[in-house]
Design a protein that fits this description.
alpha/beta; eight-stranded parallel beta barrel; seven-stranded parallel β-sheet; 44% helix; elongated
């Protein structure tokens, strides 16, 4: 009877379920979200017990660690916003998802809130928000996973939410758990973080996501959703583990546990007594009726013993303890009112011990255990279940060499041993985890009572008493501690896990006493004598010094589950998340593939990757720390050293392709370019006039020179004139560390020395640039070394010996798969020469409808296809696009990106550059080059000292002359749509479009921004989003404009990357200098004149002139400016006018924009003419 306290009473039948407690941090009960949360209890516990999280809650986290975390989380949130946008896209056009779309649009606002919060952290904690964000391997893995799911065209909205919900719910759980763990403690530097994620405002977000997810979860198989949810939870744990300078996990040297209702789900004494009753009935003389009568008598005797135990215990407790005060709800976690009384607690434990010893003798005297055999005791273990996670913890401890022990007042060691064995908690158990089944694995040191067996293994009814009560457990615990601590100071901390009042002495002896379960008597005793029971998350990372004098009340800790105990003991798991997500092949419920060719869904599906300029610029910032750690040379952002990229190609005298294009591209994308020339050509926009291959020894000498000194982080090959040159390049690359890409099995083989092979054989004009045998040599020598091969349509056909040209996206897929079989890790078939056809992916309209066309490329990495589409740019300035794309991919790989992100960033850069070069008259021939710095150009004029704080970065150039800012009220009054207004402004000559739509929700804003971008980009007009960084990232906008009270500009720059346009509203030279230091490209100064559009302090023309004169950044005038006052505004130094009502309140937007543009152009021309004599005089003096 001493196995339980009788303290936990079940709820009455029919009692209403407790109302949902938002501040529990847990999902609303009853839905699939709750089920998935329970399925990932181990991962949630590892996050809660993670040393990083615990140190943050305690206020002891290293400052640099938190700074790193803020930047990493900022990088992640940018991708989270993109995932929201992808989910919104999947809702379009489906009536069932109308509500889902509305909820997602509202939730997108939460990202904006979190980004602002991170901005506040950055300011408060001295985070260099403008620093290049270098994603850790864990951050990159998480964002790659999120993007792969979000942009998989076969993934449902439910699947995207399954990948997103865990982050939101986990942070709510952590916030609430840590708030409870730190209740009543002094606030510290990180208390704001805890308060944010435990607030009602934040907690509403995961509830909304889960309610939405639960309502649409039937659109995907459960196993697929579980796999995605689990992967996301594991990536969260890895994310915390990747933060530098985190505290080390606890060093636990001994794990001791109680048995009944601690390791087991229920008390087991009843099972043992039931087996004894059956044994005596079975052995009784007489017939079935006699045995049944005896069975009834014995059962009644057992019930009477149990009733007597309960009534006598209650009478004893009434004498020993004060009546319990009624405490309910969240107030139950309050500190006990009674002061600590160690002597009184010891006296109660002694009295309870005496009681348990006496009651054991009553059982012995009653003879109810007589006749039970060893086999009966072992068989009684069969229906007994361990608590979830208990077996795993004990087995994992044994496998890790951690000593374990079990102290139990149970009457039968035989029963306990069999329960542990059958449950997998001891060697030989069929259910033991693989980690715990090693030969020779030690069983827990079991200290319990045993029935007195005779020679035949039959119980006499007596008990060999060893551990009968709390007193005995305390003594056994002290023996274990003496043995353990005799091993020296490094033996590790001691943990005891118990559930009842009989565990109190052992709990107090341990370094960490952990209570599990809901035993009411235990809590009543602890509260009566002033021993606080705190959440396990409140336990310090370092225990008190062993043997030291304890001052004040000891603390015990409460665990919600054995999963939490395991996380506490072992620390976080490093989850391997590089492989495909389990369940990906069974989305359709049938498990087999339904795609052509029998490829499993989720492995060979077409993933559409966003390649808008904003997304590409962000992707170009991602640097994989693992690449630098492996010595690959990828060190972008470390100490300001750019990644080194070697290009091996021919020279283009016209500057549009070849080495010249490569070096310009590498620089524009943040790399340091090095070269080895293979040939010299005479060419221009009309074509190639001559080709001269350099001698092989000279090519080899160049390669040795560069590779032996300036170790590149990536290599790109272009024009290789003959098969001998191909072989020589491959040989030299192998000599200097290149290795075959295939066979690693983990998808990361491209990281060793990334090689991008651009198989240049035919120029755009059709001129042969390579001799015979080059195609075969490329396949034989370079393809096996290549991370990515980038043929265009003609080159792909030639490499494959195709009899017909490639004319569709389906052809591109087939070609990519066929070329992949030739040895490259990934193949990108470029479709820039492909005229989209109706119905093909990426085709937005008829052949002549250029505004609807898209340029499509297809990447295949051996597992799945990725479709990269971007708006088609109507221009004849396309010479060198292939070289440029390959060089940009190589630079992305050098920065640590994976192939998919590298291609996305490269295509975004190329699209941006083409759009910015659309009207440039570079040559008179049919293959005109484009400007590689278009949209990324650096200002050449010297910057004043204030701007020097920004470091080596120079602002991105932008044409600010006619800068139009949309206004929903103006458009509503005129009865026009946002897109109508933007189209008219662009037609009238607008040079920048800023979308300022304050009243529109997140989802509609993203869709509206995308539509505006699709309209503006072919015209070379950048689209900037006012304030909403989340929308800009989700829509792929060209930039963001922020005010003084918005997200800090420096943080915005770090999120957008170096290539995006960033504007800041200012009023003073000091604000302009700070904007320059924070990475802005231009400033908006004003209000220059009073305006009815927005209340703002007027700075006047004098204020505008002062900012323009003292700032290094170009300025656009804002507030009350229009065509009528353009001349005086430009004369004050502005480079353009930012207008709202002057254009959008006009009845004819196009005409108003044209008038504004003409006025600004005339004013700029007048200013230029006025300054000409001064420039001539200065030149004469020079």
């Amino acid at each position: 009877m001493a196995g339980g306290d009788g303290g936990a009473a079940p709820a009455a039948n029919g009692a209403a379920a407790a109302p949902y407690d938002l501040f529990s941090g847990l999902p609303v009960p009853g839905g699939l979200s709750e089920r998935l949360w329970r399925e990932t209890a181990a991962e949630a516990a590892e996050a809660l017990q993670h040393p990083f999280v615990l140190a943050l809650a305690a206020g002891t986290l290293d400052r640099a660690c938190f700074q790193h975390y803020v930047l990493q989380d900022t990088f992640f949130l940018a991708h989270y916003a993109m995932a929201y946008a992808a989910a919104l896209d999947k809702c379009s056009g489906a009536p069932r998802y109308a509500r889902a779309r509305a909820v997602l649009a509202e939730l997108l606002l939460g990202i904006d809130m979190e980004l602002r919060l991170h901005g506040a952290y950055a300011a408060k904690w001295g985070v260099d928000a403008g620093a290049r964000i270098t994603p850790s391997a864990a951050t990159a893995a998480y964002t790659d996973f999120l993007m792969a799911v979000a942009h998989d065209p076969e993934a449902s909205v439910a699947e995207v939410l399954a990948a997103m919900v865990p982050c939101s719910r986990l942070y709510g759980f952590l916030g609430c758990s840590l708030a409870a763990a730190t209740a009543g403690r002094p606030r510290h530097a990180y208390s704001e973080w805890v308060g944010t994620y435990s607030s009602a405002v934040y907690l509403a977000s995961p509830v909304m996501k889960e309610e939405l997810f639960d309502s649409i979860a039937d659109t995907a198989p459960y196993e697929r959703l579980k796999a995605l949810y689990t992967r996301a939870m594991q990536l969260e744990v890895n994310f915390f583990s990747a933060q530098p300078n985190s505290p080390h996990p606890r060093h636990i040297g001994l794990l001791v546990s109680d048995f009944d209702e601690t390791l087991t789900a229920k008390d087991t004494i009843g099972a043992l007594l039931g087996a004894a009753v059956e044994a005596q009935a079975r052995a009784a003389a007489g017939g079935a009726d006699e045995r049944e009568r005896l069975r009834g008598d014995l059962a009644a005797r057992v019930k009477q013993l149990a009733d007597d135990y309960a009534s006598q215990q209650q009478a004893l407790l009434a004498r020993l303890l004060p009546a319990p005060a009624p405490v309910a709800g969240r107030d139950a976690a309050a500190a006990p009112a009674a002061p600590y009384d160690g002597a009184g607690l010891a006296a109660v434990c002694e009295a309870l011990s005496d009681f348990d010893v006496a009651m054991n003798q009553v059982v012995i005297d009653a003879g109810v255990l007589k006749g039970l055999t060893r086999a009966d005791a072992a068989a009684a273990a069969a229906p007994i279940e361990l608590r979830p996670g208990a077996a795993h913890v004990l087995a994992a401890a044994a496998a890790a060499g951690l000593r374990t022990a079990v102290l139990s007042v149970n009457w039968s060691t035989t029963l306990v041993q069999e329960v542990l064995r059958a449950g997998g908690a001891a060697p030989g158990g069929a259910a033991a985890p693989a980690a715990g089944g090693a030969p020779g694995q030690q069983a827990p040191d079991l200290r319990a009572n045993e029935l007195a067996w005779d020679a035949d293994g039959v119980s006499s009814g007596s008990i060999e008493c060893r551990v009968q009560c709390a007193r005995d457990k305390g003594a056994a615990m002290r023996e274990l501690l003496a043995e353990h601590r005799g091993g020296g100071a490094g033996a590790g901390a001691v943990v005891y896990v118990g559930d009842s009042a009989s565990d109190i002495p052992a709990l107090l002896e341990a370094d960490y006493g952990i209570v599990i379960g809901a035993n009411a008597l235990l809590r009543r005793v602890l509260a009566a004598f002033g021993v606080p029971l705190r959440p396990l998350a409140a336990a310090p990372l370092e225990p008190p010094a062993a043997g030291g004098e304890r001052r004040g009340a000891p603390s015990l800790y409460e665990a919600a589950s054995w999963e939490e105990v395991g996380a506490f003991v072992f620390g976080p798991t490093h989850y391997v998340t590089s492989g495909p997500v389990e369940g990906a092949a069974s989305r359709s419920g049938g498990g087999a593939a339904s795609s052509p060719g029998g490829a499993a869904r989720g492995f060979a599906s077409m993933v559409h990757v966003p390649t808008a300029a904003g997304a590409g610029a962000l992707a170009a910032e991602a640097v994989n720390a693992a690449a630098a750690a492996s010595g690959a040379g990828a060190c972008g952002g470390v100490g300001g050293l750019p990644p080194l990229v070697l290009t091996i190609a021919g020279s283009d005298s016209g500057g549009g392709a070849g080495i010249q294009a490569d070096l310009k591209t590498i620089m524009a994308n943040g790399g340091f370019g090095m070269s080895a020339l293979t040939a010299v050509t005479a060419q221009n926009s009309r074509g190639v006039q001559a080709v001269h291959a350099l001698p092989l020894p000279l090519l080899e000498a160049q390669l040795d020179s560069v590779l032996s000194d300036l170790r590149p982080a990536a290599v790109k090959t272009g024009m290789l004139p003959d098969a001998a040159a191909v072989a020589a390049v491959a040989r030299k690359l192998r000599e200097h560390g290149a290795a075959p890409r295939r066979g690693a099995g983990d998808g990361a083989s491209w990281r060793a020395l990334p090689l991008v092979v651009d198989p240049v054989m035919i120029s755009t004009s059709g001129h042969a640039l390579a001799g015979g045998g080059v195609a075969g040599a490329l396949v034989e020598h370079l393809f096996p070394l290549a991370a990515v091969v980038t043929p265009n349509l003609a080159e792909a056909a030639q490499l494959l010996g195709a009899e017909r040209p490639l004319t569709s996206v389906a052809d591109m897929r087939a070609a990519a798969a066929a070329l992949h079989k030739l040895g490259a890790a990934a193949v990108l078939v470029k479709g820039g020469h492909l005229l989209p056809q109706g119905g093909a992916p990426g085709a937005g309209g008829a052949a002549g409808d250029e505004a609807g066309l898209e340029a499509v490329d297809v990447l295949f990495d051996g597992r799945r296809y990725y479709c990269f589409s971007a708006p088609y740019v109507p221009t004849s300035n396309t010479h060198g696009t292939g070289c440029t794309l390959a060089a940009a991919i190589a630079t992305g790989l050098a920065r640590g990106l994976g192939p998919v992100d590298a291609v996305a960033g490269a295509k975004a850069y190329l699209t941006h550059a083409l759009a910015g070069s659309a009207g440039l008259a570079l040559g008179a021939g049919p293959q005109r080059p484009f400007h590689h710095g278009a949209g990324f150009a650096r200002r050449a004029e010297p910057a004043p000292r204030a701007a020097a704080l920004a470091g080596p970065r120079r602002p991105n150039g932008a044409d600010l002359r006619a800068y139009v800012v949309t206004d929903p009220a103006c458009n509503a009054r005129a009865g026009r749509t946002l897109l109508d207004a933007v189209a008219a402004a662009v037609a009238g000559g607008a040079t920048v479009v800023q979308l300022r739509e304050k009243e529109i929700d997140g989802g509609d804003f993203v869709e509206a921004a995308r539509a505006a971008i699709k309209l503006c980009r072919p015209a070379g007009v950048p689209v900037v989003i006012n304030d909403r960084v989340d929308v800009a990232l989700a829509a792929g906008a060209d930039g963001v404009h922020v005010g003084q009270s918005d997200i800090p500009a420096r943080l915005v720059r770090s999120m957008l990357g170096p290539g995006a346009l960033l504007g800041v509203s200012v009023k003073t030279p000091a604000e302009a200098a700070k904007a320059a230091a924070d990475g802005a490209d231009y400033v908006g100064v004003g209000a220059v004149f009073p305006t009815g559009t927005k209340a703002s302090e007027v700075v006047g023309l004098a204020g505008l002139e002062e900012v323009c004169r003292l700032s290094s950044l170009p300025a656009v005038a804002i507030g009350g400016v229009n065509a009528a006052n353009a001349a005086e505004v430009i004369a004050a130094g502005a480079k353009g006018l930012a207008v709202v009502s002057a254009v959008f309140a006009a009845p004819d937007v196009e005409a108003a924009t044209r008038e504004l543009r003409a006025a600004v152009d005339a004013a700029l021309e007048t200013q230029a003419e006025a300054g000409a004599p001064e420039r001539e005089a200065a030149a004469a003096v020079a």
